[in-house]
Queue: 3 jobs
Job 1
Amino acid sequence: MKRFLAELGEGLYIESIRKGRGKDTPFDDPMYNGELYFDPDVSVIRLACKNGYDNNIGKPMMGTKCLCNNGICKWTMNKDHENEQQIPVWGGGTFNFVKTVKSSYITLKARISNLVNAESWSHDQVDTVGHPEYLDPEWWKTAPFTAFVWCPFDVTKGGFRGNDGLMTFGDFHYSEHSPDGHLWSFLSRSNTKLWKKPICEKDETGTMVCTYKSTYFKVYADRSTNITEQGPVDYSTDFKTGEDYSCETGILPGHQKFAIQNMINIYPIFENGTFGQMVNYFRQTPDWLADYGDQISPPVF
């Protein structure tokens, strides 16, 4: 069992074996001849976090499943509802550039990342077994995608009338926003792609190594002129990339027109239209933002 958990990472323990090996027959029963395996068709295992570890899943328990491709298998987190609607793959909230700060709006040079490096990420579980194309830079040359932006304030409390604020992405078609005004989604236009020409150089061993520059897009976000409604971030054009938190950006492959509404319908933590608990899914949530979902009130309809 220790070896099995080691494949999934630190901080986890098996809360229960719901089905398969270990449920009715001891895991170390001699009939298994000391082999370590689970049958992906019959084994269902429920995991939980050990005390002292941060739960970034947004719920107390999590299943896990075995995914195989060309004979190579690995255990991955089974995000139960994500067969119906995947949570956006978040790229981080400290990699944007704050370009303008006004009392009624801010503008960001927002970084949107593709999934080419997802195989090496520790902060998110992307199904690269079922979708190996995500790891191919050439695939992103033509792939449509949905961009998501989450800011720690209600954008709709800004705008001309003070209750009609918008988030505007010129390179995208607007799609949806959450009732609490925090989460917004946009569909890539025909010429908006997450691909740039690679920069290729030989390393010290003579092997050609290619890197890809980040892709940035300009976004306008309205906000209330009432300072008490502007959220916990004191925005400044002096923010340093990689250090100062602005807004979270993420993506999902394909045009997912109803992703936000689907999340409201499917995920219990979003069912009242409040997306403060999305902080549980971020790449690296700052300590001061960890309890944000408990501090904001549901929207009033």
Job 2
Amino acid sequence: MRRYDKSDLGRLVKVDDGGQAQLYSAPLFCHPEVTGQVLYKEYERKVLDRFGSALNNGLSTLVAYPDSLNPQQRTGLLARTIWPKAVIVDGKQVVGLIMGKANPAFWFESDGEELLFNLKKLLASPKHIERQTLTVPSLRERALLARQLITALHHVHRNNLVVGDVSGNNIVVTNPNRVPDGLPGGAYQVKFLDVDSFRFQHGSPPVPQGDTPTWELPESLQLDVEIAAASGLQRDSLVARQRLRTQATDIYKMGLVMVRLFDETDDAPLMYEPINARPRMVAAFGEPLTKLLLMMLDEVPERRPTSEYLVQNWSRFGGAA
């Protein structure tokens, strides 16, 4: 079942506050596709007032999308995302969604508290990673993680989807201390969060796709100049273009992930240029694959490689298996 009334959830316990939604656990509610804790994400009133129609029309379609895939495609997509399991309605309005809590491998303990292990924690200097009580990944582990990230993005893109807000906050990784040794693809496995802001390539997202600060796009910055000089309908058209996220913008942001993963300086979370990362990338991948990966940062979207091309040519360009 992909649709429930809010009253079906029973008692709710607040877990977290977000910019667009509140997150609750639903300890009395069970869903056949969730092993463990069910989480309920309820949109803020300001989001419902502005985007309620889009949620009503689009979220159910997005939630049910994996049901339309063949078993191999479905498994590949669900293995790399925290996909919502159902929409929640209050009366006739979609007000939120339910999903499973990320399994324990995606968490780590700090000062007696369990924290979600998001990718942002690895886009930092080794000293900063250690201060977070985390293990600093080796060069090979970073290379394997890079391939996991590109592969995960490809599983989204091959299904005609756009992530939109690719950033260190919206990707979770496994804790290498909580997974078996010798795991295929390395100890760092990845999943995308916030699937409700995904959109089909030729559609609109149920909730707005934005840019996390310090993850801005060159095409958006270029449009800023044009928007400042425009007015009326022309300005509205330019603003709409600036807000549009595509698979090419996903590629650019994943290119920033590559640079920040290998930068290893205190400035890593802010880096747009591979000044420090490039030598480490060459050591990890070799020159040909490094050059291909850095093409993801091309200011011209059409010149960026697709996720399909990256996956298909990874080994040919010398990447780690």
Job 3
Amino acid sequence: MTRHKGEFRTDVKGTYHTLDPEEDWVIILEDKEFAFRKRDLTYIEQQYNDGHEPEVIAKELKRDEWEVLFVLCHLAIKGRNIRVFAERKRVMSA
């Protein structure tokens, strides 16, 4: 599906919807870079699994710390075997 100006994806199926010009929109993370060389993804994965912290990896690559965290999220979503960086707690309902 082709994206056209003024459209955004809102569901997991990749469906694009038109931005309502009457709404007040905010583009989030506009100051972050999401393109990485494949070798940098491999480097981040290896360094992180070896125990290095995202802040240290980011400094070595001269990247924003959040961008390295986004890479770790990307790798986890893709099913890569990375060490835990966040744990979701289950909340018991009353």
